Protein backbone atom coordinates (compact mmCIF):
# COMPACT_ATOMS: atom_id res chain seq x y z
CA UNK A 1 0.00 0.00 0.00
CA UNK A 2 1.46 3.38 -0.92
CA UNK A 3 1.56 6.24 1.55
CA UNK A 4 0.18 9.75 1.41
CA UNK A 5 3.69 11.10 0.87
CA UNK A 6 6.32 8.97 -0.84
CA UNK A 7 9.90 10.12 -1.28
CA UNK A 8 11.98 7.77 -3.38
CA UNK A 9 15.63 8.04 -4.33
CA UNK A 10 15.46 11.75 -3.51
CA UNK A 11 18.74 13.49 -4.24
CA UNK A 12 19.36 17.21 -3.86
CA UNK A 13 22.57 19.15 -4.43
CA UNK A 14 23.32 22.85 -4.31
CA UNK A 15 25.98 24.75 -6.18
CA UNK A 16 28.55 23.38 -8.56
CA UNK A 17 28.19 20.09 -10.41
CA UNK A 18 29.82 17.26 -8.54
CA UNK A 19 29.23 18.88 -5.14
CA UNK A 20 28.39 16.38 -2.41
CA UNK A 21 24.61 16.00 -2.34
CA UNK A 22 22.79 17.44 0.65
CA UNK A 23 20.24 14.64 0.26
CA UNK A 24 21.36 11.37 -1.25
CA UNK A 25 18.82 8.75 -2.29
CA UNK A 26 16.34 9.41 0.50
CA UNK A 27 13.44 6.95 0.87
CA UNK A 28 10.60 7.92 3.17
CA UNK A 29 6.92 7.11 3.27
CA UNK A 30 4.26 8.82 5.37
CA UNK A 31 0.82 7.23 5.68
CA UNK A 32 -2.57 8.89 6.22
CA UNK A 33 -2.91 10.20 9.77
CA UNK A 34 0.59 9.09 10.69
CA UNK A 35 3.14 11.08 12.69
CA UNK A 36 6.67 10.55 11.44
CA UNK A 37 9.69 12.08 13.15
CA UNK A 38 12.84 13.05 11.27
CA UNK A 39 15.94 13.32 13.44
CA UNK A 40 19.60 13.99 12.80
CA UNK A 41 22.30 16.41 13.79
CA UNK A 42 22.68 19.95 12.47
CA UNK A 43 23.40 20.00 8.75
CA UNK A 44 22.18 16.44 8.11
CA UNK A 45 19.61 17.73 5.59
CA UNK A 46 16.35 17.76 7.57
CA UNK A 47 15.17 21.18 6.42
CA UNK A 48 16.23 20.45 2.84
CA UNK A 49 14.15 17.27 3.00
CA UNK A 50 11.10 19.28 4.10
CA UNK A 51 11.63 22.03 1.54
CA UNK A 52 12.08 19.53 -1.29
CA UNK A 53 8.98 17.58 -0.25
CA UNK A 54 6.79 20.71 -0.50
CA UNK A 55 8.31 21.85 -3.79
CA UNK A 56 10.42 24.77 -2.53
CA UNK A 57 13.67 23.11 -3.59
CA UNK A 58 14.02 21.13 -6.84
CA UNK A 59 15.29 17.56 -6.63
CA UNK A 60 18.26 16.60 -8.76
CA UNK A 61 16.83 13.10 -9.04
CA UNK A 62 14.24 10.89 -7.42
CA UNK A 63 10.56 11.45 -6.86
CA UNK A 64 8.19 13.17 -4.49
CA UNK A 65 4.69 11.73 -4.78
CA UNK A 66 1.87 13.26 -2.73
CA UNK A 67 -1.54 11.66 -2.73
CA UNK A 68 -0.71 9.72 -5.87
CA UNK A 69 0.56 12.72 -7.82
CA UNK A 70 4.19 13.38 -8.65
CA UNK A 71 5.09 16.78 -7.23
CA UNK A 72 8.76 16.65 -8.17
CA UNK A 73 7.79 16.89 -11.84
CA UNK A 74 5.68 20.04 -11.43
CA UNK A 75 7.02 23.36 -12.67
CA UNK A 76 5.78 26.93 -13.04
CA UNK A 77 2.04 27.43 -12.87
CA UNK A 78 1.27 23.78 -11.99
CA UNK A 79 3.68 23.89 -9.06
CA UNK A 80 2.31 27.21 -7.82
CA UNK A 81 -1.24 25.90 -8.03
CA UNK A 82 -0.30 22.82 -6.02
CA UNK A 83 1.44 24.91 -3.36
CA UNK A 84 -1.48 27.34 -3.17
CA UNK A 85 -3.89 24.48 -2.57
CA UNK A 86 -2.37 24.10 0.91
CA UNK A 87 -3.01 20.35 1.03
CA UNK A 88 0.64 19.75 1.83
CA UNK A 89 1.70 22.38 4.28
CA UNK A 90 5.05 23.43 5.75
CA UNK A 91 5.57 25.24 9.05
CA UNK A 92 8.96 26.93 8.80
CA UNK A 93 11.64 26.51 11.42
CA UNK A 94 11.97 29.99 12.83
CA UNK A 95 8.73 31.91 13.52
CA UNK A 96 10.48 35.26 13.90
CA UNK A 97 11.97 34.97 10.43
CA UNK A 98 9.00 33.20 8.86
CA UNK A 99 6.39 35.72 9.98
CA UNK A 100 6.27 39.11 8.29
CA UNK A 101 6.91 41.59 11.13
CA UNK A 102 4.37 43.98 9.62
CA UNK A 103 1.49 41.55 9.28
CA UNK A 104 -0.87 41.17 12.22
CA UNK A 105 -1.53 37.69 13.55
CA UNK A 106 -4.90 37.58 11.83
CA UNK A 107 -3.51 38.66 8.46
CA UNK A 108 -0.55 36.28 8.71
CA UNK A 109 -2.89 33.34 9.30
CA UNK A 110 -5.29 34.50 6.56
CA UNK A 111 -2.58 34.87 3.93
CA UNK A 112 -2.49 31.25 2.63
CA UNK A 113 -6.28 31.33 2.15
CA UNK A 114 -6.15 34.73 0.46
CA UNK A 115 -3.47 33.40 -1.89
CA UNK A 116 -5.53 30.27 -2.66
CA UNK A 117 -8.39 32.58 -3.65
CA UNK A 118 -11.23 30.08 -3.10
CA UNK A 119 -13.04 31.78 -0.21
CA UNK A 120 -14.63 35.20 0.32
CA UNK A 121 -13.63 37.58 3.12
CA UNK A 122 -16.18 36.36 5.66
CA UNK A 123 -15.28 32.72 5.07
CA UNK A 124 -11.60 33.51 5.43
CA UNK A 125 -12.23 35.38 8.70
CA UNK A 126 -14.17 32.41 10.09
CA UNK A 127 -11.43 29.96 9.10
CA UNK A 128 -8.75 32.19 10.67
CA UNK A 129 -10.67 32.29 13.96
CA UNK A 130 -11.09 28.53 13.80
CA UNK A 131 -7.36 27.99 13.18
CA UNK A 132 -6.37 30.33 16.01
CA UNK A 133 -8.79 28.62 18.35
CA UNK A 134 -7.43 25.21 17.35
CA UNK A 135 -3.91 26.23 18.36
CA UNK A 136 -5.24 27.71 21.60
CA UNK A 137 -4.87 31.42 20.78
CA UNK A 138 -7.51 34.01 21.59
CA UNK A 139 -8.25 35.71 18.25
CA UNK A 140 -10.03 38.65 19.91
CA UNK A 141 -7.07 39.39 22.16
CA UNK A 142 -4.12 38.59 19.88
CA UNK A 143 -5.51 38.85 16.35
CA UNK A 144 -4.49 42.47 15.81
CA UNK A 145 -1.03 42.21 17.33
CA UNK A 146 2.21 42.06 15.37
CA UNK A 147 4.59 39.07 15.75
CA UNK A 148 7.01 41.20 17.75
CA UNK A 149 4.32 41.91 20.35
CA UNK A 150 3.55 38.30 21.30
CA UNK A 151 5.59 35.63 23.08
CA UNK A 152 7.79 33.01 21.40
CA UNK A 153 5.34 30.23 22.25
CA UNK A 154 2.47 32.25 20.77
CA UNK A 155 4.47 32.98 17.60
CA UNK A 156 5.13 29.26 17.17
CA UNK A 157 1.40 28.60 17.43
CA UNK A 158 0.62 31.40 14.96
CA UNK A 159 2.95 29.67 12.52
CA UNK A 160 1.08 26.40 13.06
CA UNK A 161 -2.30 28.14 12.68
CA UNK A 162 -1.08 29.54 9.38
CA UNK A 163 0.05 26.08 8.30
CA UNK A 164 -3.24 24.36 9.17
CA UNK A 165 -5.68 27.07 8.06
CA UNK A 166 -5.87 25.47 4.61
CA UNK A 167 -6.85 22.14 6.26
CA UNK A 168 -3.89 20.23 4.89
CA UNK A 169 -3.78 16.46 4.72
CA UNK A 170 -0.13 16.55 5.66
CA UNK A 171 1.78 19.08 7.73
CA UNK A 172 5.55 19.20 7.81
CA UNK A 173 6.59 20.99 10.99
CA UNK A 174 10.26 22.02 11.06
CA UNK A 175 11.59 22.11 14.63
CA UNK A 176 8.22 23.20 16.03
CA UNK A 177 9.32 22.98 19.66
CA UNK A 178 13.04 23.67 19.67
CA UNK A 179 12.76 27.28 20.85
CA UNK A 180 10.03 26.63 23.43
CA UNK A 181 10.04 26.11 27.18
CA UNK A 182 8.71 22.84 28.59
CA UNK A 183 5.10 23.92 29.00
CA UNK A 184 4.82 25.44 25.52
CA UNK A 185 6.62 22.42 24.08
CA UNK A 186 4.06 20.06 25.57
CA UNK A 187 1.22 22.25 24.40
CA UNK A 188 2.46 22.22 20.78
CA UNK A 189 3.13 18.47 20.85
CA UNK A 190 -0.36 17.78 22.21
CA UNK A 191 -1.76 20.01 19.49
CA UNK A 192 -0.02 18.04 16.73
CA UNK A 193 -1.28 14.81 18.22
CA UNK A 194 -4.81 16.21 18.41
CA UNK A 195 -4.73 17.37 14.79
CA UNK A 196 -3.88 13.86 13.77
CA UNK A 197 -6.59 12.32 15.93
CA UNK A 198 -9.37 14.79 15.19
CA UNK A 199 -8.65 15.63 11.56
CA UNK A 200 -6.75 12.56 10.43
CA UNK A 201 -3.94 14.90 9.41
CA UNK A 202 -0.55 13.29 8.83
CA UNK A 203 2.42 15.10 10.37
CA UNK A 204 6.14 15.01 9.73
CA UNK A 205 7.96 16.48 12.71
CA UNK A 206 11.56 17.50 12.24
CA UNK A 207 13.27 17.74 15.59
CA UNK A 208 16.53 17.67 17.46
CA UNK A 209 14.56 16.82 20.55
CA UNK A 210 14.27 13.05 20.71
CA UNK A 211 12.16 12.99 23.84
CA UNK A 212 9.49 15.14 22.15
CA UNK A 213 9.27 12.66 19.29
CA UNK A 214 9.23 9.69 21.63
CA UNK A 215 5.92 10.98 22.97
CA UNK A 216 4.03 11.50 19.71
CA UNK A 217 5.67 9.91 16.68
CA UNK A 218 4.58 6.56 15.26
CA UNK A 219 7.72 6.13 13.24
CA UNK A 220 11.06 7.87 13.03
CA UNK A 221 13.64 8.31 10.28
CA UNK A 222 17.25 9.03 11.18
CA UNK A 223 19.13 11.25 8.77
CA UNK A 224 22.91 11.49 8.65
CA UNK A 225 24.79 13.43 5.99
CA UNK A 226 21.81 13.39 3.65
CA UNK A 227 20.99 9.70 3.95
CA UNK A 228 18.36 7.88 5.94
CA UNK A 229 20.52 5.49 7.95
CA UNK A 230 17.65 3.92 9.85
CA UNK A 231 13.89 4.08 10.10
CA UNK A 232 11.16 2.23 11.90
CA UNK A 233 8.58 2.42 14.68
CA UNK A 234 9.74 4.98 17.22
CA UNK A 235 9.66 2.61 20.20
CA UNK A 236 11.77 0.04 18.39
CA UNK A 237 14.30 2.53 17.02
CA UNK A 238 14.74 4.36 20.33
CA UNK A 239 14.58 1.14 22.35
CA UNK A 240 16.97 -0.90 20.20
CA UNK A 241 18.76 1.17 17.57
CA UNK A 242 20.20 -0.88 14.73
CA UNK A 243 22.55 1.65 13.15
CA UNK A 244 25.57 2.77 15.21
CA UNK A 245 24.82 6.42 14.37
CA UNK A 246 21.30 6.11 15.75
CA UNK A 247 22.73 4.45 18.84
CA UNK A 248 25.10 7.39 19.25
CA UNK A 249 22.29 9.92 18.94
CA UNK A 250 20.22 8.04 21.47
CA UNK A 251 23.11 7.45 23.85
CA UNK A 252 23.52 11.23 23.90
CA UNK A 253 19.87 11.74 24.84
CA UNK A 254 19.47 10.15 28.28
CA UNK A 255 15.75 10.96 28.33
CA UNK A 256 15.02 8.40 25.60
CA UNK A 257 17.90 5.98 26.15
CA UNK A 258 16.70 2.48 27.05
CA UNK A 259 17.85 0.97 30.32
CA UNK A 260 21.07 -0.93 29.65
CA UNK A 261 21.57 0.53 26.17
CA UNK A 262 25.12 1.41 25.13
CA UNK A 263 26.40 4.71 26.49
CA UNK A 264 27.98 7.41 24.35
CA UNK A 265 31.48 6.44 25.52
CA UNK A 266 31.09 2.90 24.18
CA UNK A 267 30.05 4.28 20.81
CA UNK A 268 32.54 7.08 20.59
CA UNK A 269 33.45 7.38 16.93
CA UNK A 270 36.93 7.18 15.63
CA UNK A 271 38.46 10.65 15.57
CA UNK A 272 40.28 9.90 12.32
CA UNK A 273 39.39 12.22 9.48
CA UNK A 274 37.75 10.46 6.54
CA UNK A 275 40.22 9.17 3.97
CA UNK A 276 37.63 8.60 1.27
CA UNK A 277 34.43 10.03 -0.04
CA UNK A 278 31.57 8.01 1.31
CA UNK A 279 29.42 8.00 -1.83
CA UNK A 280 29.66 4.24 -2.36
CA UNK A 281 29.73 2.96 1.17
CA UNK A 282 28.12 3.82 4.47
CA UNK A 283 27.99 7.55 5.11
CA UNK A 284 28.93 6.98 8.77
CA UNK A 285 31.88 4.68 8.03
CA UNK A 286 34.52 7.33 8.71
CA UNK A 287 33.21 7.86 12.23
CA UNK A 288 32.04 4.37 13.08
CA UNK A 289 33.95 2.30 15.65
CA UNK A 290 32.64 -0.91 14.04
CA UNK A 291 33.79 -0.17 10.50
CA UNK A 292 34.92 -3.05 8.26
CA UNK A 293 36.11 -3.00 4.67
CA UNK A 294 32.72 -3.43 3.01
CA UNK A 295 31.33 -0.41 4.91
CA UNK A 296 33.58 1.77 2.75
CA UNK A 297 32.79 0.22 -0.56
CA UNK A 298 29.28 -1.21 -0.69
CA UNK A 299 25.96 0.36 0.14
CA UNK A 300 24.17 -1.33 3.00
CA UNK A 301 20.47 -0.88 2.98
CA UNK A 302 17.31 -2.78 3.04
CA UNK A 303 14.76 -4.08 5.43
CA UNK A 304 15.58 -5.51 8.81
CA UNK A 305 12.27 -7.09 9.63
CA UNK A 306 8.96 -5.99 8.26
CA UNK A 307 8.82 -2.32 9.18
CA UNK A 308 12.43 -1.36 9.75
CA UNK A 309 15.41 -0.45 7.64
CA UNK A 310 18.97 0.04 8.83
CA UNK A 311 21.76 0.89 6.40
CA UNK A 312 24.47 -1.02 8.26
CA UNK A 313 26.58 -4.02 7.23
CA UNK A 314 27.08 -5.06 10.82
CA UNK A 315 23.50 -5.37 12.01
CA UNK A 316 23.02 -6.77 14.57
CA UNK A 317 26.49 -8.08 15.42
CA UNK A 318 27.91 -4.67 16.48
CA UNK A 319 25.50 -4.62 19.39
CA UNK A 320 27.01 -7.85 20.65
CA UNK A 321 30.49 -6.33 20.35
CA UNK A 322 29.46 -3.42 22.55
CA UNK A 323 27.87 -5.71 25.12
CA UNK A 324 30.95 -7.93 25.48
CA UNK A 325 33.61 -5.25 24.81
CA UNK A 326 35.14 -7.55 22.20
CA UNK A 327 35.08 -5.04 19.43
CA UNK A 328 37.95 -3.48 17.60
CA UNK A 329 40.70 -2.13 19.88
CA UNK A 330 39.56 1.49 19.44
CA UNK A 331 36.08 0.52 20.64
CA UNK A 332 37.35 -1.27 23.70
CA UNK A 333 39.53 1.74 24.50
CA UNK A 334 36.62 4.09 23.92
CA UNK A 335 34.37 1.98 26.11
CA UNK A 336 36.75 2.54 29.01
CA UNK A 337 36.52 6.29 28.74
CA UNK A 338 33.87 8.56 30.09
CA UNK A 339 32.82 11.90 28.76
CA UNK A 340 33.75 14.29 31.49
CA UNK A 341 31.91 17.19 29.96
CA UNK A 342 28.19 17.29 30.48
CA UNK A 343 25.79 17.89 27.59
CA UNK A 344 26.24 17.16 23.95
CA UNK A 345 29.18 14.81 23.37
CA UNK A 346 31.82 16.08 20.96
CA UNK A 347 30.95 13.20 18.65
CA UNK A 348 27.76 14.98 17.63
CA UNK A 349 29.15 18.39 16.94
CA UNK A 350 29.89 19.39 13.39
CA UNK A 351 33.32 20.58 14.51
CA UNK A 352 34.40 16.97 14.92
CA UNK A 353 33.81 16.30 11.23
CA UNK A 354 36.33 17.19 8.67
CA UNK A 355 34.79 15.51 5.66
N1 LIG B 1 20.10 26.91 -0.45
C1 LIG B 1 21.23 26.29 -0.08
N2 LIG B 1 22.37 26.50 -0.77
C2 LIG B 1 23.51 25.87 -0.43
N3 LIG B 1 23.64 25.00 0.60
C3 LIG B 1 22.54 24.75 1.33
C4 LIG B 1 21.28 25.39 1.04
N4 LIG B 1 20.36 24.94 1.94
C5 LIG B 1 21.03 24.07 2.75
N5 LIG B 1 22.32 23.98 2.39
C6 LIG B 1 23.34 23.11 3.03
O1 LIG B 1 22.80 21.82 3.11
C7 LIG B 1 23.19 21.18 4.33
C8 LIG B 1 21.97 20.68 5.05
O2 LIG B 1 21.23 21.82 5.52
P1 LIG B 1 19.82 21.67 6.23
O3 LIG B 1 19.38 23.03 6.65
O4 LIG B 1 18.91 20.90 5.36
O5 LIG B 1 20.22 20.79 7.51
P2 LIG B 1 19.40 20.55 8.84
O6 LIG B 1 19.59 19.13 9.18
O7 LIG B 1 18.00 21.05 8.70
O8 LIG B 1 20.20 21.46 9.87
P3 LIG B 1 19.61 22.25 11.17
O9 LIG B 1 19.28 21.17 12.16
O10 LIG B 1 20.78 23.07 11.60
O11 LIG B 1 18.44 23.04 10.73
C9 LIG B 1 24.00 22.19 5.10
O12 LIG B 1 25.37 21.93 4.88
C10 LIG B 1 23.60 23.51 4.48
O13 LIG B 1 24.64 24.45 4.59
TrEMBL record:
Signal peptide: none annotated. It is found in: Cell membrane. It comes from the Bacteria. Residues 5-250 form the ABC transporter domain. Pfam families: ABC_tran, oligo_HPY. One of its GO terms (cellular component) is plasma membrane. Residues 335-355 are annotated as: Disordered. It is a peripheral membrane protein. Keywords: ATP-binding, Cell membrane, Membrane, Nucleotide-binding, Transport. GO terms for molecular function: ATP binding; ATP hydrolysis activity. GO terms for biological process: peptide transport. Belongs to the ABC transporter superfamily. PANTHER family: DIPEPTIDE TRANSPORT ATP-BINDING PROTEIN DPPD, OLIGOPEPTIDE TRANSPORT ATP-BINDING PROTEIN APPD. This is Peptide import ATP-binding protein.
